[in-house]
């Protein structure tokens, strides 16, 4: 039975919602990536589509580089720019990629926690489109959810049960 909401609790802010969402994404991505057998990491549904490993590598690149859009420094291990970072992350072993994804989510969460109201309202460049940093963060989260759905579909096709579904 679901408890009734506390009407006296303060409303969740967009900032807190983004942080909570990132923490949920981290938990789901990391646990699902770990649930795949290492022999399944190169599986792809068809030619020309990302493999399981490539989806994980993409997430590493995103959690490292999305925060640079709103002014955060990338982690030391990352490359500058999407193509070099994708090449670096795709070359990682599956275990190293999962470890970097987990640490990268912590990096992204910290970058979001550090944003004040002025930083959230600042105009940034979202892949050629000027928008407020808060809108860019929302766009990043939408994209990450899309890739979580991709990884869930891959799991189902490989009879991997998402750990939170057990």
TrEMBL record:
Annotated protein name in UniProt: DinB family protein
Residues in DinB-like domain copies: 27-151
InterPro entries in UniProt: DinB-like, DinB/YfiT-like
Signal sequence segment: none
Pfam family, one: DinB_2
Superkingdom classification of source: Bacteria
Organism from which the protein derives: Gaopeijia maritima
